Amino acid sequence: MPRLYLADFKLGSVLGVGTVGTIFDGHVRTDTEVSPSATGLAGQDLAIKILHPNVSSDELIQARFRREMLILERLEHPNIIGYFGGGSEDNQLFYVMQRVDGGTIKDLIVQSGSLSWPAVVDVARQVCSALQCAHNHGVIHRDLKPGNLFLTRDAEVKLGDFGIARDQHSADLTHQGLTVGTHAYMAPEQITGDEVISGKIDLYALGCCMFEMLSGQKVFLGENFAQLFEQHLRTPPRRISSLVPDVPRELDEIINRCLEKRPEDRPFNARAIQGVMLTIGEKYGLSQPPVASSPHAVAAKDREELAPEPHDVAAESVTGIGREQLAEQIRIRQQGDINPTVPAWKLALVAGLLILVLGIAALLAQR
C-alpha cells in the first residue's frame, strides 16, 4: 500500500517517475504538529521527490541523491526549481521543491509541434540565466533537455533535475570514462567521457534544445545511440534556417556556434548567449515596453560582451513578446485546445482541391 505521509508532508498524486525517483504532489500536513521549517510552507503546492525503494540501498545512488539536494540548496535563482529542504524518514530519502504547473518544453513540442522563434528567444534567455548561475557555483548540469525545462503558467522557465550534475567543488561521483547524459543532447566531449569538462557541454545541449524547439526535430536523427554518438562527434549539424527559413540570422548563427564540435569554438559562456538573445529582442522589436526608450540601453554591437548579470529583471521586457507567445501556447495546451500548425503546402493543397470542386460543381450546374 502506498504511503500517504512522509515526515511533515502529505503525499498526493504522482507527478512524474524517473530512473531513481518518483515525484509526488504534496502539502504540509494539517493533522499533526509539524516542524517550524514546514510551517512556513503551509498552504503551498509542493513537489516531493522520493528515492525509489528498490534502489535506496545503493550507496552511489544515495550519494547522488544527496548531492542533488546540496546543489539545489546552493542554486537559488528564479529560473531554477526552488528547493525547500529534504531528509530521510524510515530510511526513505526525499526532498521538497517548488511545484510548477505549466508542464515542460517537451510537452509543448509534443503537442504543438514547435515554438515560435520569439518564444524560443525568451526561453533561451531564461535558460542562460539559470545556467550562468549554476556555472558560477561550479555546477555543470549535464542533462539539459526539453523535458528538464519546466514551466509556470505565466511562462517562467525553471531548470530542474540536477540528478547527474557535476559539482566541481567536490568529488565526481561518475567513474572516469563513463558516459552520462541523454544521447540526443550530449556534447562530443561528454560522449567520449573526457575527465575535464566545462559548462560548455551545457551550451551544446542548449543549442540542441533551441534547434528542437524551433523545428520540432532533434539535431541528429540516428536510429540508435551508436549512430547518434557518431553524428555528434563527426557530422556537421543542419542549419536551423534550412528547416525554419524565417528565423533571424543571429539566432541561426548562435545555434550553430553552440553546436560546434570543439568546446573552444562555442560561445564563451551562457551569459554571452543571453546577450545575443537580448540583441535579437531589441533588433526585432520583441520588447515590452521598447527598451530603446531606456537611457541605460546598451548598443547592440556591444551586447554580447556586456550582457547583464545572470538574472536581470530589466532584461525580461526585452523579449517580452516571446514570453507572451510562450504563455499562450501553455494556456492552449492546458485547455486541451491544441491546434498544431498546419504546414503551408497542406493548406495550399486543400485550397486548390476546394477550388477544383467548386469549379466542377459550377460546370455541372450550367448543364
What's this, in brief?
With 367 residues, the protein is an alpha+beta fold. Helix content is 38%, strand content 13%. This is Serine/threonine-protein kinase PknH.
CATH architecture descriptor of the largest domain: Orthogonal Bundle
Elements, N to C (H/E): EEEHEHEEHHEEEEHHHHHHH
Output the radius of gyration.
Answer: 23 Å
| CATH topology name of the largest domain | Transferase(Phosphotransferase), domain 1
Shape: globular
Q: Characterize the main sheet.
A: 6 strands, antiparallel
Strand content: 5-15%
Number of helix segments?
11
Indicate the structural class: alpha+beta
- Give the class-level CATH name of the largest domain: Mainly Alpha
The total tally of domains equals 2
Poorly predicted residue ranges: 290-309, 337-355
Tell me roughly what share of residues is in helical segments: 25-40%
Strand order of the largest sheet: 1-2-3-4-6-5
CATH superfamily of the largest domain: Transferase(Phosphotransferase) domain 1
Protein name: Serine/threonine-protein kinase PknH
EC number: 2.7.11.1
Enzyme class: transferase
Pfam families: Pkinase
